[in-house]
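Q: Got a minute? One more chain.
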Amino acid sequence: MMSLLSDRRPNRVNHCPARLSLLTLALATASASASATDTDTIRVQEPDTGRTELETLVINAYRPAQTIGGATKTDTPLLETPHSVSVIERQELDARGVQNLNEAARYTSGVLPESQGIDNRVDDLYIRGFDAGSFGNNVMLDGMRAPSDSNLSWNRTAFNSWNLERVEILKGPSSVLYGQIAPGGMVNQVSKTPTLDQEHILQLQADSHGRYQTAFDTGGASDDRNSLWRLVGLIKDGGTQIDDTEHQQWFLAPSASFRLNDDNTRLTLLGLYQQDAGGSTFQFMPYQGSVIPGANGYIDNSTFLGEPDWNQYDRNIWSAGWLFEHQFNDDWRLRQSARHTHVDSLYRTTVGYGVRGAALTDLNTLTDGHILKRRAVQGEGDSDGQTLDTRIEGRFSTAALNHQLLAGVDWQKTDWDFLRKAAQVAPDAIQIDIYNPEYTYYDFSKVLFDQMSTKETDRQTGVYLQDQIALNNWRFTLGGRYDWFEIDSLNRLNGVTTRTEDEALTARAGVTYLFDNGFAPYLSYAESFQPAVGTSRSGAAFDPITGSQWEIGVKYEPSQIDGMITLAAYDLRQQNVLTADPLNQADERYQVQTGEVQIRGLELEGRITPFAGFSLIGAATRFDSEVTRNNDGYTGNRMIRVPDWMASLWLDYTFLGGSLDGLSLATGSRYVDETYGNLANSLKIPSYTLYDAAVRYDLGQVGNSRVQLSLNASNLTNERYVATCTAATACYYGSGRTVMATARFSW
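A: Always. Here it is, folded:
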């Protein structure tokens, strides 16, 4: 690991905020034993699993999860999972004022949220250097993948986070349980479902952009408590960070649970309808004017460079499914998850003239340093996805070994179509001044022509087997999976059909040792695969793109305080990457599968409460990325959107007693080192540091209700920063300052 820990730019590392996070976590942990007596604890028995969990008498919004379902598809304690995972619980989402998946992941090691800038259409984030967001199809809901469109389609899901009970972030390859997936990791969103003694919540919010929001969460149970229901909903409307751009959204998510056969059988029905309307906050910024100054400096991060009449992202999402469980006896049970999801959307936008990913020729793309040429496009999409996952889980012993066996088969299918149109209009006819935009209100609907029209069906079937073995203090995890997948695609513009059909075998293994003092070192190996779609000289289909990772780490769960700290180091490689065919002549664009990239990393993350009323979340990440094989001339360069360092720290203190009883103060900071937007490493993106804060006040009992008032602020200084660039004409600003006031009533 010496080469990993050495920095290629030592003059910057000495004051890197990652050091601050490392030091703060260490000091907080060291002081834990001295202050542990400040927090009384009790043991609470969970009726459903029989597992003992540690609870504190003082409300703690940052309690680490005790189990995680997404990593193993079993109720495995987090400490015994031989992988680096992060779980953001509902209480933390509320305390930090989280509004979407990007905000949920802000204080997580190894994760670069908002990797494509502010974008209210999708959830876009990178995990360990690879796309794990909406466009990468690596976002799950209750362990089931949303409909997977081509990365050229804008028809995507993005579920409102108010309907989530928790967010699970799995780092590293996860194909053994989920099939085709990027090697960096995945996100599993866990829906709110009915619970006994349901708390009723009404929440009113308003933010500094003029957005107003009302949300509720309610439920109940029958007299015999065998039938439960829950209804979660939200409506919001108003402005966004971007000028002349408003957005509306509402959703309803009903669910019902039934306990049958003396509670040996449980069935939960889940439904959701969500509607988005209004404008998109996603827009192209020129490198000149965002990363480097133009004629009059930099573009404001609220400037709208599109057309008010041609900025639209309307989307409808509905889904229906179930979670089923039957307990045969004390040791064996059957589980099944199923969902149908429909998504349709209409997207219209006017952006800077240029192509994402285009080769860099000149960074100064503006006319006279302030005039931006533009283009306009429209996209219509529609998709239907079905997924079914059936698994049987059993416990048994062989000699001194205690086994928890999981065997399953899952199937998923997506039918989707996409029509993209472009406006036939000269770029300089609709050009705009980036410092003083005057909109043309051009009627693009009369000059549209078909640019892309695709109809496709994607299928995947996988069988998997996993054995979790306990031997005294040792925990072993072994898993394997075999997948069959196919892609049938029709280009409706030329009538050409293509078929990609292949198979993939993936494996995973891990070992953990549980020390009595709370330390749990582990070692693991995992694999992943993704279909490869490209053009070979022979016309033959490509093999799957594969990923493999070795990870070593240690988790620490103190016995006398609430918290967990994880330190992990890994070596992650992606093989069979498409790269240029060395035999290409002139304008030939054939590809071969000899490319490879490598990323090595060191991650530290912790959620701890060293003494009553004070909690902290700390994360520090060190990346070392490299293109190890490439025919395009990029060998030895860094991977895109992978900083050398990332760090974050969130501190929260609640006054207990006295005149300030019920008042909570929180502050946080996030640092992202410089990155590159292309493999040529010619598009350099500067580093940035952002600051957040929150104030909460619990009014206590008001009548029969509990009332809490809060004020959350992100990017306090309104730092103007670029998240990334994909071309000299395509850079993307990150979120500016947002202040949100909340009144929460519960009973």
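A: The CA atoms of residues 216 and 333 lie 34 Å apart.
Q: Perfect, thanks.
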